[in-house]
Amino acid sequence: MAAQMQSIASTSARGVVAPRRRAQLRVSAVAELERLATQSASRRGVPEGTPVVPVRDLPSRPRRNRKSETVRRAFSETFLHPANFILPVFVHDGDKNIPIDSMPGVARLGWQHGLVDAVAEARSVGVNQVVIFPKTPEELKTPTAEEAFNPNGLAQRTISLLKDKFPDLEVYTDVALDPYNSDGHDGIVSDAGVILNDETIEYLCRQAVSQARAGADCVSPSDMMDGRVAAIRGALDAEDFTDVSIMAYTAKYASAFYGPFRDALASAPKPCAAHRRIPPNKKTYQQDPANFREALREALLDEAEGADIMMVKPGLPYLDVIRLLRDNSALPIAAYHVSGEYAMLKAAAERGWLNEKDAVLEALLCLKRAGSDLILSYYATEAAKWMADDKPSWR
Ligand code: PBG
After folding, report:
1. Is the pLDDT of residue 125 over 50?
2. What segments bear the compositional bias annotation Polar residues (predicted)?
3. Is 368 in the active site?
4. Which member of 84, 177, 271, 387 lies 3.0 to 4.6 Å from 145 by CB, making a disulfide possible if both were Cys?
């Protein structure tokens, strides 16, 4: 201690010192420390036992830029805004809203009423983008999923109704066969258990065009077939839908975090078909969670094929992939905060293990910080409400 004090005193003798420091040094540093040491802790305003130490000579103290709410807000690098959110909605062909057990607070909405109310509520807090997921009755599902492009299908009716009621609402759709496929895969499955790429693309194109005809603003292929973005762009343009955008699920991983979504739509792979080998998972088309560079390969292809937005999915476990795409493309990047991420937060919040508002807003902010412009989240409306309530202390 004495040696340290000595060094402080001699440092100060070396030359130019700031006026405030000079004032401090009018009494020698050593004497000042000795004087402080004789004062009681309560006089010094610190707990008993707090050591008396010299001021450290730190050229940089990052804590200065965190010292008040005003400066913290002033120096914040990332802001969340409801305009960035896309609310995923589940609809069914009935009247009542049916709760989804594994997603407390989320329901399959009656497409004519519950859905319209949910969208009006989202808009009232600034969320003006939705993506629609229809729950197809089992009897309409087939191995080739033709219901996906039924002009009178639930998705198509829902899109038209929403665009009719809310013309400035941005309506996104999901392009993939799984909600309509009796085998529960995003593409057509051969008897040997192969998810057929090029044959599936033919139907994805028809699906996208039928959604565009119904009024969709942006179609979102989530199927992970190779070459589908270019094919869908071509099919849309051939029908004069040059203004309909494509949000490609660029880096969609074969993730366990989609479980609650598959409950919501009863869309999980169904490997029990007689005489046919239906793969129990989606690993031959969705990406391996172990892989990073592969996301860049997908991104280069999707951008070249004409995607307008590129998505990473799931969200929080894949922040590195979001950053990878952000740094390698000028396109807007979307992050999907998926059903399993929602369910985890809800479950912990229900048990009182997490502060739901703080944890959710932090999760969404981190998706933004990692580089996403758009965030798809089942929390979109609730988060926007919390954000509206969140006034700084000086207002
Ligand atoms: C369909 C699709 C899935 C999700 C979005 N579109 C499920 C899947 O690929 O099995 C998951 C979304 C979520 O979990 O919230 N292709």
Report:
1. yes
2. 1-13
3. no
4. 177
